[in-house]
Predict the structure.
Amino acid sequence: MSKFDEIRPFYDHEVRDALQSITKHPMMKALMQFTFPDRDEEFWLNEFKNVNSISDFQHRCISQTIRQILKQSSEGLTTSGFDELDKNTAYLFISNHRDIVLDTSLLNLVLLDRGFIMTSSAIGDNLVHKTFLHVLAKLNRNFLVQRGLSLRDQLNSSKIMSEYIYSLLQQENRSVWIAQREGRTKDGNDATQQGVLKMLAMAAGDQSLTDFFKTLKIVPLSISYEYDPTDVLKMPQVIAKSKNEVYVKDQDEDFKTMLSGVLGQKKRIHLHAGKVLDIEFDEIASNIENKNKQLQAIAQLIDDSIIQNYKLWPTKFIAYDILNETNKYSEHYTEDEKMLFERRMEMRIDISDAVLKQSFLAMYANPVINKMKYQ
């Protein structure tokens, strides 16, 4: 028994049996019919016979699923920054977080197509309570972030996860994806939680904080969707927060959100890989002694990269101008794009509700506000 057994994905020798355990599940059939719409069941059952590792499963099946998602619900995926990375190096991608499934899946498709090391990716265990989703996640090299634990158990769980991430990067030469915060950003304000960095630092051992973070080869990742397919689903939580109310999720809310994120219209998508953080840690070490303040400075480094490299689509500028009753950014969009955005908003929310309308617009506008602070 390994101390990582509760959270790790499948080992390759476990993949065949795991896949067989869900082959006849109706959700697997639906997934494969979506993935291979012009093929019969015999085709993908034969594909499964050639799957003996996670890599096989990702190459033969899941990469095709993501291509199909892009084909049916987007106007294409563009990238930048990846040319600066080394194909044989394992990186820790710390990413802004908009969509439960797609953020990490799109990154892995980019890495696969460019011949890079694909990631092992963090996913909350609250999202994979259903047996099928749990097995599918582990077949996709996801490791589990344990939620809802007592304070003592949470500390131990964080320590194990920190050691696991470090072992992936250093011993297995496996890249890792984690979100910059717990849960998706609901209001468009991308900010790194210090708790995520504290968790990572638990594996530092005798190394100084800044030397340890250097070894992780952190790449801040900026993900930008022209339309957020789950925008309307995020509104109840945003409004509850604005009223200082506790928001309680419905039982199947996470699953519905996953489906909406996968199938909903996104239009254009852009991923930017920031520069590997390195000498910046030397500057922090020489200027700041307090560990908490060092963590604050590291969080700020990541935020600076994610926000500055975030692709501002026309929808972001449109939302800003409507929200602020201005034409400040009108050169960044056409009248047709504005009409389309307004029509979509009217179909998704009750625009007579001032709070709801303001929250919806702010979700799209906040990346503009945040990015402009740097200019």
Notes: The beta strands are 74-80, 92-95, 119-124, 142-145, 175-179, 218-225, 267-273. The longest strand covers residues 218-225. Residues 315-372 form one domain. The first helix runs from residue 12 to 22.
